[in-house]
Structures are given as structure tokens and as C-alpha cells.
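User: Run a structure prediction on this.
Assistant: Running it now.
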Amino acid sequence: MRLDKFLVATGCCTRSVAKKQVRSGAVTVNGYAPKTADVDIDPETDKVLFCGQSVVYRKYIYIMLNKPEGYVSATEDGREKTVLDLIPSDARRKGLFPCGRLDKNTLGLMLITDNGELGHRLLAPKSHVKKIYRFRSKFPISETDAARFAEGLVLEDGYETKPAEITLEGDGDEGLITLVEGKYHQIKRMLEALNNKIIYLERIRFGPLVLDERLSRGKWRYLTDDEIAMLESHGK
């Protein structure tokens, strides 16, 4: 594997940054500082240091994205901008996909990975992975309607949702919603079943992952080792 691809695959940096760091001597392979980033290494046996820190090879990439509005949750779309368009081309790897969907105008936490097995497990209905959203509604939600929400609602197509937690804040027109399923436009449809309307929706948690408040809208970062460990063990 090429050194620059190795550094991207391990989440150290983008390929362009990798090339700059190698040229500056900040990357060593078995104690030797190569001149260029296109040298081949063995990711399983070679000891690579990046800015003095040991780099461990990972089979998969895990990215946290703070999704802005106006982007669709897809790998590609002939008409719309996708969440993958927010990831620089030199940081992408074949097979990357958004794990789960957020509506075009829903904001917040998205997991982007190339670990298909993990994605399937996290999204499987039987996994009951919790998703927490911050919301604002057009009208205040009464305690009676909140109780209905918590029991599960029958949507316009007859589907009966699983019980969902709702915590009201302020004047009852904002708060937190926790789901354990992810049907199409589910929160929007649940509010419509209460004769209400969502005007703001942001996902702040997906399973064990919590949206990094330091990530401004549209920005991304690689997951930390601790986050990856929690994610890979979640639901097993």
C-alpha cells in the first residue's frame, strides 16, 4: 500500500496533507523518513509514525459529519448535492456511504463509513439503535399529545410507530425526540399525526456517537479510537 493511501485509510489526514507532512519529514517508516508519499509500505508489519505518534492500520474509515441543509443522504445523485460532496476527494475511499438517512433539510450528525457489515447492523430494525433529535415545531405540543407520541402513533398510511421519547422544553414547541426506528420522514409524519409541523430538526446522537459541538455545519472529522471501539461493539 502507498504511504499516502495508508495515512488516509488510518484517518490521519487527507492525501494532500499526507504529501506535505512526508515532504517535511514528519512521517517515518521503520525509523526512516521517506522523501515522497508514494513509497510502498506493508500496513501490517511496518511501523509508521505520524508527527511522532504511532499509526495503526484500520480496515475501515469512519467519519463524523455535521450535515447542513440542502444535501441529500446518498452516495451520488444526478440532480442534488450529496453528503459525500462535503468530503474532500483526497479523503474518500471506494465504498464510502452515509450510514442512515437524514432528510435534505434535516441537520446534524451523520456517520460516513465503508464498513457495510457495521452499517447493516446499526440500521437493522431489530437493533433498535437510538437516534436523538433536537426539534422545533410550528405549534406547542400539549402534554396529552406528548403522551400519545410516547405510546406510538398511527401515521397517515396506517403504520403504527414504536414508542418514542419526547422531552418538551421552552413553551412546548421545542425539545428532544428519541427514536429507535427510522422510517421515511418519520418525525415529520409523527408531528403531522398530531396536526403539527416540524420547522427545525437536528440529529445530535446516533447510537453511541454524539455530535461534536466543535464541528461547524458542513465540517467533518475522523472518529477517535474510543468512538470507533464503541461503535463497533454497539449492538453485538
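The CA atoms of residues 62 and 113 lie 5 Å apart.
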